[in-house]
Write a structure and sequence with these properties.
- The complex is a heterodimer.
- Chain A has helices at 6-10, 32-53, 55-62, 68-86, 90-109, 119-147, 167-170, 189-195; one strand at residues 22-24.
- Chain A is mainly alpha-helical.
- By secondary structure, chain B is an alpha/beta fold.
- In chain B, helix 6 (171-180) packs across helix 7.
- Chain B has 14 helices and 18 strands.
- Chain B has two domains: 2-169 and 337-390, Quinone Oxidoreductase, Chain A, domain 1; 172-334, NAD(P)-binding Rossmann-like Domain (Rossmann fold).
- The chains are: A mainly alpha, B alpha/beta.
Chain lengths: 199, 391
């Protein structure tokens, strides 16, 4: 049974007959934290667009009418986090999501009033926010650890000169090389100043 | 066979794929004995260079043994030959090849129409480096088909380990060309930005060519250490101001020759605000390249000096100080490496033990460890500088 993406299969139309084509795909260089970051990035984009385009539906559902401008601003923030989480700088994106989660929780908490007729919705929203915050924190930590340089012992490259005869003996060892005429540059200043002493 | 295959951004896999087949009389099939991950593969890993497709086989630093040869080679390359495969595919017959400008071969890019549209005119076909340069499957695989084999490959003798010869495929000639096109003089100070694999080779090349001072700029301690033992004065840009230090080393005049071994992905740090600006624009697709090094080189280079660019740029770079470059009368030389122009001479220098390029290898692993080594190399883990893969 083959295991290859449909896009990889589709791209075979660009290949010649003798080019290799994928039969079975192996494990990805992208680990679980990276894949989760990608999912969270797309989630951020979706949520951000919803907040930006339909803030009224969100504020009505939570009994927070009048806060539409704030929800729109959070939408912009969410889209920024999403783009970062989908980029190579996913660590930054995930930690910005964690910070955003804190803001969201603090804001929704203000709606947890006894006189709010949508209090039940607020409780559900807070539970969801706490859940997603936990996922964000776990993934941010895992991604940071996975992509850090590590604190282990640095290797020594003291024996890596690349010159079997030593550095000093190798300085100018290739002066027999004649620069091709098409790669010649202007004469060095030192040569000119020897011919014409400075005034 | 097994091969490292690109499936998307940061998604490389060791897949089972069909074996390559001879398509033309000048083709050969090489059984790969060693291949490497190049710094420029990371640009593809990050999906910063356009026209990669899921299913593309990675890799452009490869060597091995010829196991099958087309009928049009007339014995110039034959079964059993040991060969290094340069990353540039060259016909050897067009006007550009005849003058030694192999990386802009007019005939080897089989997707010329794409390159014509994007670059204005086509450049050479490259192994494993997007469909803009032909969409040729790369050499991080057990087998590789090499087109135009008689003009593309460098035959190498038995008795020298792969590790000493493999880098004739790319990073050694690339570092060498970076230094040669700077026309290094015995009185020159040569400043080299980036102590990755190409930077290390450029440092050794500048030393061999007899520069008065070679200055290497980076911030990773292990890379700076490797640069220093190779004969360079080092500048850690986390600790020192690069422009001030270079001026200090040149009595205030600036280096005559500047070499950019970084390219489109300059390190991003708040201490260099332009790098943060570039990264932000890059994320929002408003700029494809982060040209901090170019800006710094133009600023610090001595008037009338020369800027050599082996580092790969992919598309559009912003805020290049052309006013300074123009008024200072700087010369720019850049391009993909004309590998075949230098390989025979560099092979001789390896045989004569002027240099042993294997010094740069820090990790040697089986091919199926490739996906995780892409990540380790990108994240600079375990002091990783150069990864060699053994199929």
């Amino acid at each position: 049974m083959t295991n290859m993406s449909s896009i990889a299969s589709l791209s075979n139309i660009t290949r010649s007959e003798g080019d290799p084509k994928v039969i079975h795909a192996g494990p990805s260089s992208r680990g679980v934290p990276d894949s989760l970051a990608k999912g969270l990035g797309w989630f951020s984009l979706g949520l951000g667009l919803t907040e930006l385009l339909a803030p009224g539906r969100i504020t009505r559902a939570l009994g927070m009418e009048g806060k539409e401008a704030l929800v729109r601003a959070y939408g912009v923030r969410e889209i920024g986090s999403g783009i970062l989480s989908l980029s190579v700088d996913k660590k930054l994106g995930l930690w910005s999501r964690v910070a955003g989660d804190g803001l969201d929780i603090a804001t929704v908490m203000t709606a947890l009033r006894s006189d709010n007729p949508k209090r039940d919705n607020v409780v559900v929203a807070l539970a969801l926010l706490l859940g997603i915050t936990a996922v964000d924190v776990i993934d941010a930590q895992a991604t940071t650890a996975r992509h850090s340089r590590g604190v282990g012992r640095r290797r020594s490259y003291q024996d890596r000169s690349g010159f079997p005869r030593g550095v000093e003996a190798s300085r100018g060892a290739a002066r027999d090389f004649k620069t091709p005429s098409d790669l010649k540059h202007a004469p060095p200043l030192a040569a000119v100043s020897k011919r014409v002493p400075a005034a | 066979m097994r091969a490292l295959v690109w499936h998307g951004k940061e998604d490389i896999r060791c897949d089972s794929v069909t074996d390559p087949e001879i398509e033309d009389g000048r083709d050969i099939i090489v059984k790969v004995t060693s291949c490497a991950i190049c710094g420029s593969d990371l640009h593809l890993f990050h999906n910063l260079i356009p026209a990669m497709l899921p299913g593309d086989v990675m890799g452009h630093e490869t060597m091995g043994e010829v196991v099958e040869a087309g009928r049009g080679l007339n014995g110039k390359v034959k079964k059993g030959d040991r060969v290094v495969v340069p990353f540039t595919i060259v016909c050897g017959e067009c006007d550009q090849c005849k003058r030694g400008y192999f990386s802009v071969c007019q005939r080897s890019n089989r997707k010329k129409h794409l390159a014509d549209k994007v670059f204005g005119h086509t450049t050479a076909g490259l192994f494993g480096y997007t469909h803009l340069t032909g969409g040729y499957p790369g050499g991080q695989a057990e087998y590789l088909r090499v087109p135009f084999a008689d003009s593309t490959v460098q035959k190498v003798p038995d008795g020298i380990p792969d590790e000493k010869l493999l880098f004739l495929s790319d990073i050694f000639p690339t570092g060498w060309q970076a230094a040669v096109q700077a026309d290094i003089q015995p009185t020159d100070t040569v400043a080299i930005w980036g102590c990755g694999p190409v930077g290390q080779m450029a440092i050794r090349s500048a030393v061999l060519l007899g520069a008065e001072q070679v200055v290497a700029i980076d911030h990773l301690p292990e890379r700076l250490e490797m640069a220093e033992v190779g004969g360079a004065i080092t500048i850690n840009f986390d600790d020192e101001n690069v422009v001030e230090r270079l001026n200090e080393l040149t009595e205030g005049e600036g280096p005559e020759k500047c070499i950019d071994c970084i390219g489109m992905e300059s390190h991003v740090t708040p201490s260099m605000p332009d790098t943060v600006y570039d990264r932000a624009k890059q994320i929002f697709l408003a700029e494809s390249d982060r040209p901090h090094v170019l800006r710094e080189m133009i600023y610090v280079c001595r008037p009338g000096g020369l800027i050599s660019i082996p580092g790969v740029y992919g598309g559009f770079a912003d805020k290049i100080p052309m006013g300074a470059a123009m008024n200072k009368g700087l010369t720019f030389r850049m391009g993909q490496t004309h590998v075949q122009r230098w390989t025979a001479d560099l092979l001789r220098r390896i045989e004569e033990e002027q240099i042993d390029p294997s010094f740069v290898i820090t990790h040697e692993v089986p091919l199926d460890k490739g996906p995780e080594m892409y990540r380790a190399f990108r994240d600079k883990q375990d002091s990783c500088i150069k990864v060699v893969l053994k199929p």
